[in-house]
Design a protein that fits this description.
Layout lengths: L10 H9 L4 E5 L2 E4 H17 L7 E5 L4 H12 L3 E4 L6 H10 L4 E5 L3 H8 L6 E5 L7 H9 L14 E3 H6 L16 E7 L7 E6 H15 L10 E4 L6 H11 L5 E4 L5 H11 L3 E4 L1 H9 L13 E4 L6 H11 L3 E7 L3 E5 L10 E5 L4 E5 L13 E6 L11 H7 E4 L2 E12 L5 E6 L3 E4 L2 E4 H9 L4 E11 L3 E10 L8 H9 L10 E4 L13 H19 L1
Parallel strand pairs: 1-11, 3-4, 3-5, 5-6, 6-7, 10-11, 10-12, 12-13, 13-14, 25-26
Antiparallel strand pairs: 1-2, 8-9, 14-15, 15-16, 16-21, 17-18, 18-20, 19-20, 20-21, 22-23, 24-25
Helix pairs in contact: 1-2, 2-3, 4-5, 8-9
Length: about 550
């Protein structure tokens, strides 16, 4: 392929803003933002960041959910050459404190409801400034008043201080455009995203501008070109933007084509269905759990979803019955997107052929894939199952300050450095990847890819726990439930599952909390003392199969 020209993550977006200034870029809680208005807000916020001391390659944490401020901050941070660090707004102070220290973050943008967590960690970290916002700060005052009257808007207690700033005031007080900054799109970081770690701590994944630009250009040129009308489509985004799947989809399908993005703050089923009907949504992205909840909603037939043309699914294995029911009900298939934080978007279902539930799509042209034997790393023959390895000339190939994790996950093969996905697939005769199974270390709960080791590390920090093993238990509604098998010290007394769940709740985001805890005397380990997680996982599978047989 011809190499892509050097671009920044915001280059195409700026061109669209000039070309489509009056067109609608965004709808949020019923409020319209034109491309011209959104670009103006980005410029003002970028100038505000510079004014309070944010400099090129400084890391800025986005600790907020889906809202216009997320979009504004994302582009503004990159525009001044800084690095955005998006994290889940439901992370605890324990997790946030670790990431602030790990990435040397000096600026955090947070909701007023999360201010208490940031205030808690500020004295323990090198954090210098906090920018506070709320879910409705950029919508009209009268809507805010109505929302507060009906207790529809959560609010948190904040403080004043020289290190505390208002998101809105930074926009309001800064009219000039920010100074132009020289950015190296190959070597300068655009973001650091955090993902689960095999050693118990989340890993920072640094991304350059070209890594993100390359897969978004693939999407635009090879996936949706010829199927999408520029500046005329409506795209629904309900998935969290702090995930690379949702962020790339929003930019590639929405903003970079001059289309209208309908942004929802949280994945509530009725709000999603209502938005599709109200705005005549043609394109959407969801996780399998969202599509399942939509299909099982008693009120789904009250909504007109006839505007939907292309429905994408990603983030987890698509159950065959969900795929089949959706197609039978609406006459349109579900297409798939597959990727990872480390290498971006990797595959998409092509829109000119009928997709299958088990096939995650064709590799994008800027991503090179190999299926290899897990032990020898030798490529497997066509049609056989192997671990997926991915590389790209555009991406960085390391974790942030984690050399051991980097060595374990990024390997030299045929002169290139490949990332080990940990998912096992096979290539069909059409050159598409078919998902088979994932590594035992990864648990997929709803849209979240959770490291079992991270939960195990939190449990093993408890003074009475000497061993822990976490696995995923298949659940058609959410993908997998989290089960922890725990070994306690011999003299431990009065410690039950509720105590350990509370312990985890203080240290982990809600979606990482175990759903079940089982106590045992010992855990299976190899001769060198390595936890044999797959043995326990296989054991639980056998239990489930026996239960199903009894039930039938």
């Amino acid at each position: 392929m011809e190499p892509y020209k050097e671009e920044y993550t915001f280059s195409r977006f700026e061109e669209i803003c000039e070309k489509e200034s009056g067109n609608t870029a965004l709808y949020y809680l019923g409020e319209r933002f034109s491309y011209g208005k959104l670009n103006m807000l980005i410029d003002r916020f970028a100038a505000g960041l510079v004014k309070i001391g944010v400099r090129p390659q400084d890391r800025v944490m986005l600790y907020i959910p889906n809202c216009p401020q997320w979009i504004i901050a994302n582009f503004a941070i990159n525009k001044i050459g800084a690095v955005m660090v998006p994290v889940s707004p439901i992370y605890t102070a324990f997790e946030i404190g670790y990431m602030i220290e790990d990435a040397d973050i000096k600026t955090v943008i947070c909701l007023d409801t999360n201010f208490v967590y940031i205030r808690e960690v500020m004295k323990k970290t090198r954090l210098e400034r906090i920018i506070i916002t709320n879910l409705v700060e950029l919508i009209p005052v009268w809507k805010q008043v109505v929302g507060h009257l009906f207790n529809k808007i959560p609010t948190g207690k904040t403080e004043k201080g020289k290190e505390i700033f208002s998101f809105w005031k930074l926009i309001r007080d800064n009219w000039p455009k920010p100074p132009k900054v020289e950015i190296d799109p190959w070597n300068d970081l655009a973001y650091i995203m955090y993902t689960g770690g095999t050693t118990g701590f989340p890993k920072g994944v640094p991304g350059n501008h070209m890594g993100e630009v390359s897969y978004i250009r693939d999407i635009m040129d090879d996936v949706i070109d010829g199927h999408m009308q520029e500046s005329k489509e409506v795209v629904l985004m309900v998935n969290p933007l702090f995930h690379i799947m949702a962020k790339g989809f929003t930019i590639g399908f929405g903003f970079n084509f001059g289309n209208t993005v309908i942004l929802l703050p949280s994945p509530e089923v009725d709000a999603t269905l209502k938005a599709i009907e109200r705005y005549k949504v043609g394109w959407m992205l969801g996780v399998p759990a969202l599509y399942r909840m939509m299909l099982e909603n008693d009120r789904i037939d009250q909504y007109d979803l006839s505007s939907l043309k292309y429905c994408y699914c990603g983030g987890d294995v698509l159950p065959g019955e969900v795929y089949k029911t959706w197609k039978e009900k609406y006459g349109i298939p579900m297409y798939q997107v597959y990727g990872s934080t480390e290498v971006g978007h990797i595959t998409y279902s092509l829109l000119d052929r009928e997709p299958k539930a088990t096939v995650v799509g064709s590799p994008l042209k800027s991503r090179k894939v190999i299926l290899a034997d897990q032990e020898t790393l030798a490529p497997v023959p066509q049609g056989e199952v192997g671990e997926l390895m991915v590389t790209s000339p555009y991406t960085l190939k390391s974790y942030w300050k984690k050399p051991e994790e980097t060595e374990r996950s990024f390997i030299q093969m045929n002169g290139d450095i490949y990332y080990r996905m940990g998912d096992f697939m096979k290539m069909n005769v059409d050159g598409e990847l078919e998902f088979m199974e994932r590594t035992a270390d990864t648990i997929k709960y709803k849209a979240y890819r959770i490291s079992a080791s991270e939960i195990e590390a939190a449990l093993q920090d408890h003074p009475t726990v000497i061993g822990a093993c976490c696995i995923g238990i298949p659940d058609p509604r959410v993908g997998e439930r989290i089960k922890a098998i725990v070994v306690l010290k011999e003299d431990a007394k009065g410690v039950g599952s509720s105590d350990l769940i509370k312990w985890c709740r203080d240290r982990l985001a809600p979606y990482k909390i175990p759903h079940y805890i089982e106590f045992r005397d010992m855990l299976p380990k190899s001769k060198v003392g390595k936890l044999l997680r797959r043995e326990i996982r296989d054991e639980e599978k056998r239990k489930l199969q026996k239960e199903k047989k009894r039930a039938t």
